[in-house]
Design goal:
The complex is a heterodimer. Chain A is α/β, with parallel strands linked by helices. Chain A has one domain: P1 Nuclease (Orthogonal Bundle). Chain A is about 55% helix and about 10% strand. Chain A is built from twelve helices and seven strands. In chain A, a hairpin with a 5-residue loop joins strand 1 and strand 2. Chain A is globular and about 50 Å long. Chain A starts with a helix and ends with a helix. By secondary structure, chain B is mainly alpha-helical. Chain B has a single domain, classed as P1 Nuclease. Chain B contains 13 helices and five strands. In chain B, strand 3 and strand 4 form a beta hairpin. Classes of the chains: A alpha/beta, B mainly alpha. At the A-B interface, helix 1, helix 2 and helix 9 of A face helix 1, helix 10 and helix 13 of B.
Chain lengths: ~280, ~280
């Protein structure tokens, strides 16, 4: 694991990775590809007609790539906020997702360009909202809501060579740590080749609001793993003395959560696309 | 750690020296393979002793140090005048600029295609000529292989990102796709091998020479996309890359379809014939 982490650090350095977005390119592409594998032929044909015959995977990170050209998109909230006790949604992202899905339902009435952009938004943001790095939990029992766990939680990987934070770990980091050489087809093959219909039915039961609430509950569990992360002892740099060290075992646990969310997001995305474009 | 970084950097440099990087050559060959007729695929697989063309996607570069293939060293580029007219190999060979001197790729391509079309080659000669065609036709869909004699200075264009200097041509060869997509070989096929029959007919219409000449105006315009010395930060680099990846990914697809068309023409007697000139 130590060697793997060192390798990752080197890869990230050489690749000049400066953009950190939920899941990163590979994660978003994996979610969209898993979704594509579960589309009905009719839904696949219809949605691809709307995007010039391309695969939805091609546009999985379009929103991240083109955000700078559309300043208003930068204002869209990419973090879902939930009450830590009731897991009730608080904040705007649900409204954004609701409006995107409602627009998709009326895709035949949209102009070509509006239809395309709505699909790009959906394919990307639906993946974002399944990323534990994009969930914030609040305790609202006091006078003011208190953010319980912050996504800017800083820590060291066990090599102590690289300072990371929670958000960066989920934004592509965890996927590249687990399998730096895998493409989206490798991920989909590994996660989606032998799942049962029972699993698909269970994960796609309910509404999209239920699914995002499920992500929030999962995120709570992920945060709890951090709570048992040991603090650094005898840190040389006093400024960093409170930072924690995440070891290989914990990374494996995060990897399990990441894999589950990639798969679930793909299956759920397919369900929505099938319902809307399968007619 | 330091050693690791140096090794990776060295590998990157090696790939940069071979035009489209290795992953793009493999992607183009995979698109071509995906569009071969069954008959062509069978004949080619026999020729390659069971391997596919993807395995040998950059044959010319993999054998650059082999004495037997030294004549291919000048089969790198194609040179054009300021009027987008091809500079003949004889003229190019005498030019003071090395990139122009190496602009004999079209002649190399044509000689290999003529040899394959006329037949009478040994199995080894047929294999080698076919693999030349695959490597060179791939490269001739990369703008850096088009040397415009009036834009020689622009070939030295560079940019800065986070205060580090990068070559524009190297960006095209290595990062014009990877700057946006992390595709593996089969993923190039999934993303780009999805043209309609009408689109394929349009892409493969004309002769091999007309394809190369037809690429020139677009590849000339590529030099307008960068003011040399531009300093990028993360956001401006992203905006700039957004202008480049639609061109690079389309050229990768076009190269794959055209290689398939010429291979089908050569190795399947029932496939439509592609003219060389």
């Amino acid at each position: 694991m130590k060697r793997l982490i060192l390798t990752l650090i080197a890869i990230l350095t050489i690749a000049n990775i400066t953009e950190c977005f939920a899941w990163g390119r590979d994660g978003h592409a994996t979610i969209a590809y898993i979704a594509e594998r579960h589309l009905t032929p009719k839904a696949k044909e219809n949605i691809e007609k709307c995007i010039d015959g391309r695969s939805i995977v091609y546009y999985a990170s379009w929103l991240d790539n083109h955000r700078a050209e559309h300043k208003s998109w930068g204002k869209l909230s990419h973090v879902c906020h939930y009450d830590i006790h009731s897991f009730e949604s608080i904040g705007k992202p649900h409204k954004y997702m609701k409006s995107t899905i409602n627009k998709l339902k009326k895709y035949r009435e949209l102009t070509d360009s509006a239809r395309k952009v709505t699909i790009y938004h959906f394919v990307h943001s639906f993946g974002d909202y399944h990323c534990p790095g994009h969930v914030a939990l609040y305790d609202r029992t006091g006078e003011k809501p208190k953010r319980i766990h912050t996504s800017s939680y800083d820590f060291y990987l066990n090599a102590k060579k690289s300072r990371w934070n929670y958000h960066k770990l989920w934004d592509a980091g965890i996927i590249q740590i687990l399998h730096p050489d895998w493409g989206y087809m490798d991920w989909a093959h590994a996660l989606d080749s032998s799942i049962s219909q029972e699993y698909i039915d269970k994960v796609t039961a309910g509404t999209w609001e239920d699914w995002l609430q499920d992500v929030a509950k999962t995120t709570h569990t992920v945060y709890n793993i951090f709570n048992r992360v040991p603090k650094i002892k005898n840190a040389e740099d006093a400024l960093d003395k409170d930072l924690s060290v995440v070891d290989g075992q914990m990374l494996n646990e995060f990897g399990e959560y990441a894999s589950e969310q990639l798969l679930n997001a793909g299956l759920r995305m397919a369900k929505i696309i099938n319902e809307i474009f399968g007619e | 750690m330091k050693k690791f970084i140096i090794i990776i950097a060295a590998l990157c440099c090696t790939y940069n020296a071979s035009a489209w990087s290795r992953h793009i050559h493999a992607g183009i060959a995979a698109i071509a393979h995906d569009n071969l007729t069954e008959e062509a695929k069978k004949n080619i697989t026999e020729l390659l002793d069971g391997k596919s063309i993807i395995y040998h996607a950059q044959f010319v570069y993999d054998n650059a140090d082999n004495e037997a293939y030294k004549h291919t060293k000048v089969w790198k580029n194609v040179a054009f005048t300021d009027k987008n007219k091809i500079l003949k190999a004889k003229k190019a060979a005498k030019h003071e600029n090395k990139d122009v001197r190496n602009a004999q790729a079209l002649e190399g391509l044509i000689s290999s295609l003529n040899a394959l079309q006329s037949g009478g080659l040994t199995k080894e000669q047929t294999r080698d000529n076919m693999l030349y065609v695959i490597t060179i036709l791939s490269d001739l869909h990369c703008p850096t292989h088009y040397v415009f004699t009036d834009l020689l200075e622009k070939r030295k264009s560079f940019y800065y990102f986070n205060d580090k200097k990068y070559s524009y041509l190297t960006y095209w060869e290595s990062n014009s796709v990877r700057g946006t997509f992390n595709w593996k070989t089969n993923e190039f096929v999934h993303q780009l091998s999805r043209k309609t029959p009408e689109q394929v007919a349009d892409i493969t219409n004309g002769s091999v020479t007309s394809w190369i000449i037809g690429n020139a105006p677009l590849y000339r315009s590529v030099y307008d996309l960068l003011n040399t010395g531009t300093r990028f930060d993360g956001q401006t680099l992203r905006l700039w890359q957004n202008k480049i990846y639609p061109i690079s990914t389309e050229q990768v697809a076009v190269a794959g379809y055209r290689i398939a068309a010429i291979l089908n023409s050569l190795f399947d007697s029932n496939a439509p014939q592609v003219k060389i000139k």
